[in-house]
Amino acid sequence: MQFTLMNKNHKIFDFWYDEKIPAVTKIENIYDLKYLPYIIKPSENREDFIKPLNIWLSTRFQQNSHWFKQISRKNHKIDLITAIYTKSYGLSLSDQYWIKPSNDKKKWEEVNFYTNNFQYKHFLEVGLTDRNYDYEDVDVLYSPDITTGGELGKCWIIDSNKTRILYKTTNTFLGLEPINEMLSTKICKILDVACADYEVKILSNLTKKTLVSGCPTFCSEDIELIPFNDLGIHNESYKQDFEEYLNLLKANGIKEAKEKVSKMLLLDVIISNHDRHMNNYGIIRDSNTLKWIDVAPIYDSGRSMLTYLPNIDLDYDNELFVFNSSGCSHKEVLSLISDLKLTKDQLNDLLSIPSYYKTLLEKYREYTNLKNDRDIELLVEKISKNIFEVIKEYNLENEIEIDDIDM
């Protein structure tokens, strides 16, 4: 079957998709390579696009799609890729790419999820982690959930203000992801760095109440997210990755790049975030001019604060994921960003975080797997120690009496 890879109303090229393989087998009728997804590089040879296009499509719909993995387990013989192309165009709320059957006459304005309605109520009714519905239903497939990556149960909704909001649930032992997302938002505001604005919600479906985080998309019809993973940075050490990333940001006109990236890494130290993999940060760019706008607001920080442990262990490894490198210690990360400057007010405001976190844990405890008050005390102690470590590092002018801090 023949399809056209689109960016808004820009045709990029036509391709043939063989359902029996299933894979892209041929590229033809090249129109405008300027609007290719960033990860796919222009070439004069059409054959050069086949492999990267198959990888891009696979990542978009299979490897990173919670929905796809759920349904494909139940329908092994079903070619869901073709169903997605023909029924929902592979649309997303992170960019402006879509897959159109070549004989389809629809325009971007008629189909995109930023301005057009999509299905979501059935997801809320059934539950984010138990989606049982007919995959052949056109309306069900017409959702950005299909192209939203990650392991957590997720659902995009449209609120009363027509804002596109992503709800995410949990999949760890303690089930603290939504609380940790709200915690990270609070810390980002103290650090004065852009972030997705998370809130905690309690959703009631047909079977139970579910703790979720909710945040509006920071993309739009004119703004796309390019994950770090798509930038092609792969060095032998996180220090080399750091320098190359900063150089690339500066070369594309991003101001205060080092400060912004450093604050993201500092956040990860504070919340012991082990999940800052290469699709959990990146840059945003103008989809019309293709000009880079800024580093993306910080997002996806929920899998932190030991939520993945069956029992809270304060001595469990504090190693973090930094660029392509796993297993980086707090000390190594703080050394990497040692020239970051924090104000006295910021340091003082960080001291309020343990109390704030404790309030969140107590408020939503019944929706988590926290066993008792001691669990909450241990988590508060964990973030207190992390903050103490940060204050020792950045209290350069000795404006705060460390010995007097009750952590």
**How many runs of DSSP E, i.e. beta strands?**
13
Q: Which architecture name of the largest domain does CATH use?
A: Orthogonal Bundle
Number of structural domains: 2
Indicate the proportion of strand residues.
Answer: 15-25%
CATH class of the largest domain, please?
Answer: Mainly Alpha
First-last Cα distance: 63 Å
Largest sheet: 4 strands, antiparallel
- Name the average pLDDT: 88
Classify the fold: give the CATH topology of the largest domain: Phosphatidylinositol 3-kinase Catalytic Subunit, Chain A, Domain 5
- SSE order: EEEHHHEHHHEEHEEEHHEEEEHHHH
Radius of gyration (Å): 22 Å
Cross-sheet strand order for the largest sheet = 3-2-1-4
Question: What share of the residues lie within helices?
Answer: 25-40%
Q: Which structural class best describes the helix and strand composition? A: alpha+beta
**Helical region count?**
13
Explain how this protein is built.
- This protein folds into 2 domains: 2-112, no CATH class; 220-404, Phosphatidylinositol 3-kinase Catalytic Subunit, Chain A, Domain 5, CATH 1.10.1070.
- It has 407 residues and is of the alpha+beta class.
- β5 and β6 form a beta hairpin.
- 33% of the residues lie in helices and 18% in strands.
- The strands form 4 sheets. It has a 4-stranded antiparallel beta sheet, covered by helices on one side. The protein has a 4-stranded antiparallel beta sheet with strand order 5-6-8-7.
- The radius of gyration is 22 Å and the shape is globular.
- The longest helix has 22 residues, at 373-394.
- α9 (257-270) runs antiparallel to α10.
- The chain has 13 helices and 13 strands.
